[in-house]
User: Which sequence fits this backbone?
């Protein structure tokens, strides 16, 4: 009998979104990779991709929310059935089955100066960077 892997969340955090320029120490063991990306096809950023066990997701997302710059950035953590979005000092859960939650989260995100077109939450369940024709650009 094979064991089923423990549920985990795929986290996407931009290094440039972090006020201190680095992930909080408690999240460093969860880093899978880092890679360059062009936000909106123009602005060069570094993507930090994490794998967070489901049992650790709430404290992990909260740590990122507290570490974010006060404007223009968010981070997302995608699971099978839901997604957690970290905004500055704010944590939101979007169930995959509730598109209205994504709409509300986008509205909240704009209050932090995040352009609505960067918050493709519905498509992020399938691709890390859905603004690029729905295809993940992650290596």
Assistant:
């Amino acid at each position: 009998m094979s064991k089923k892997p423990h549920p985990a969340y795929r986290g996407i955090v931009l290094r440039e979104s972090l006020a201190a320029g680095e992930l909080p120490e408690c999240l460093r063991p969860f880093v899978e990779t880092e890679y360059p990306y062009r936000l909106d096809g123009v602005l060069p950023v570094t993507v930090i991709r994490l794998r967070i066990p489901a049992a650790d997701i709430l404290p992990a997302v909260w740590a990122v929310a507290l570490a974010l710059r006060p404007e223009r950035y968010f981070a997302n953590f995608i699971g099978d059935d839901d997604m957690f979005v970290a905004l500055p000092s704010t944590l939101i859960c979007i169930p995959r089955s509730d598109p209205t939650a994504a709409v509300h989260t986008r509205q909240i995100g704009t209050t932090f100066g995040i352009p609505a077109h960067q918050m493709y939450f519905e498509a992020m369940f399938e691709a890390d960077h859905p603004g690029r024709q729905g295809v993940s650009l992650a290596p």
About this structure: Residues 8-124 form one domain.
